[in-house]
Amino acid sequence: MVLHWDGHLFIADTFVNVPSGFYRKDRPKGTTSFSFMWSIPNMIPLPPDTIHAMWKAVEPYDFTATHGLFPGWDIRDENVKKSVLESMKIQVRNQGFAAHALLDEE
């Protein structure tokens, strides 16, 4: 569940920003800004179809910031929406789904 308001996306548990999302300089290729988890403490990722449904839910909205679960876990970037999709694609690929429909999204 997320809340969209005035160009801001408030995220919490299944859709969470990760430390590498707070900077973009000199990041290795394949580094995510967000993670999509069924259980964060147990490191259980969401399945690709659920991640794709999450993208379809936020795709119609324009946003330039995400606000995470904890104070200071905010990402403000004009390309943050692109980073969300990129992170989703990286996670789905790394879960072994090289031909999933999410990978065709732009």
TrEMBL record:
What domain of life is recorded for the organism? Eukaryota
PANTHER family in alphabetical order: METALLO-BETA-LACTAMASE FAMILY PROTEIN (AFU_ORTHOLOGUE AFUA_5G12770) (PTHR36839:SF1)
| Name this polypeptide is given | Uncharacterized protein
- Give the species this sequence originates from: Aureobasidium subglaciale (strain EXF-2481) (Aureobasidium pullulans var. subglaciale)
